[in-house]
Amino acid sequence: DGKTELATFYEENRTQVKLDQISPHMRNAIISVEDRDFYSHGAVSAVGIGRAFFNNAMNPGKRQGASTLTQQYVNNLIVNAAEQNGEDANATLGGNKNYFAKIKEMKLAVSMEQNKSKDEILEGYLNIVNMGGSNFGVEAAAQYYWGIPAKDLNVAQSALLAGLVQSPNTYRPDEHPDNAVERRNVVLSTMLRDGKISQQEYDEAVASEVNLDIHPVKKGCSNAGEYAFFCNYVVNNILQDESYGATDIQRNAMLQRGGLKIYTSLNTEAQKVAKQAVEATQPGATNTNDINTALTSIEPSNGNVVAMAQNTEWGSPKDANDHSVSQFNYNVDAKYGGTNGFQPGSTFKPVILAQWIKDGKGVNGMVNGTQLSYPTSFAWNAKCYDETGGKYYYRNQPEGWTFKNAVNGGLGYNTAAYGIRQSLNSYLYGMLSRLDLCDVHEMSKTLHMYDGTGEPLHSIPDLGTDIGGTKNGVSPLTLASAYAVFANEGKYCEPRPMNKVTKNNGEVFKEYQAKCEQVLDPDIANGVSWVLKGVIQPGGSASTRGIGLPEGSAAKTCTNDNSSQTWIAGYTRGLVTTSWVGNVAKGFRSMNGLAINGQVREYVDGATYAGAQWQTYMKAVAPKYNTDNFTQPSAKVLSTAN
After folding, report:
1. Fewer Cβ neighbours under 10 Å: the N or C end of the chain?
2. What is the mean pLDDT of residues 480-490?
3. Which residues touch 624 (CB under 8 Å, ≥6 apart)?
4. pTM across the whole model
5. Peptide bond into 550 cis (omega under 30)
6. Are 431 and 419 in contact (CB under 8 A)?
């Protein structure tokens, strides 16, 4: 939303400020202790060089520097450039420099003073110099040590910070307070010597306590709270995008050191609702039975990722019994920090429905839903399968291909729409017996139905994949993107977690345009929506999970074998949300009869917990997006043709 900061990344914590936003005491302190004649000499001080040469010759063990503030500024810029380029920055530091490097530094300093004013050089120096740990520049240091802006630094605080630049970590007040006070007092004496402070100011400053009030800047996704998993998804997108650098190291350096502002697609209000919904199912803090929940929401018209939540916090489990934290993002594919996915079960059925419509069959066409098995002699159409002239015969079991409906009964003759709305496998295979497996496979790829490893979710000739029984499953984000094709009248949009990235100066570094493509005839998509809206209307498999938009909302449930993985994937015109409740570590362990947030249910299906999550979220968030009624499909789609 341009206001809520989700996370901060940095190698060096630095905030640029103008010179007039820096306390005069700070300016005086740094000049007195580091370069008292800064405003009167040139880029290189002959007097300073002579004094240092004499001191170093007479006291070999007590080396004295001769660099002016301009030279120090140049050196800091060289160090910074080396670090950004992945080079050895230590070679450019102080006593490590050889004479050639020192001469180069002097030449650059002279060039700088020909092009910049003294005030500009002082401003640059005070914004780049290290002041302990990851704090670079006076603004970051003032905020870290006392929680105040650099313009409000008093005499004692200014002297303490000025003392740090000689050896930032030796004089850190939060780690070496005695060293810091001793060095501070040295700086105060130089300020008194130069008339920058009075005797009274000196006495009061020397006698004062440091009184630190540490304000650490949180770093990375681990500190992003409820946004942590979405944050990690964004980071993984960046680290795989060559726009940010040719190598992993360069891309990470750009993220950590590039001074970028990354504007994401997340709706923070929707995210709060999503997190509350998944925690209401099974709070992570009391997750003794290891029940996992997740919810992803996107805008079908542009791919914007609106919310992404799960019932764990980001982190490493303390032990095998700690189910409150995870470093796996249950909502995304493995390449983005997720898993290999979860069995989609009956949420795959709309793919077959779409192919049914594409083949010219009507959603009100009659289907034989009386069979729970097909003999080995049954010829499944598979024109791309080379076994017997484009036919496939299931011979893995003597009795042929057998399956069951999720609930007993449901056998009969009825419409394709009825079979999908009731989620009856007997109707699904009745429809599939009239289609070609290869066409279904292509339709699944058209809808971008891929598993968590990036492979097609549907495989040939595995008949089990037609009811979502796959080795690897699908992620909530991928499933939401596929269903978005139906919500968006046949148009697929790539998931888009970022809208734009700007440089430190506000210039746009990269803008993320929506990447959308018409992949399905609008009439087919509208036909699927016409059927799926009945799932959450009276008579549907999730009739209790409506959201008050009977003509403008649709959904499909899933309950896989033994109720180990459950889903509901549903949408309006403006919002697609997938809700999942199941197991990650426990695999195919049933949730039936298991205590989930204090409740024990004899039978758990997609409408139970996953449905409640989806309903809670969609009721609160969907009205903020497009809720117009779906477009009525053509008479051909609504026909009884079969």
Report:
1. N
2. 98
3. 270
4. 0.84
5. no
6. yes
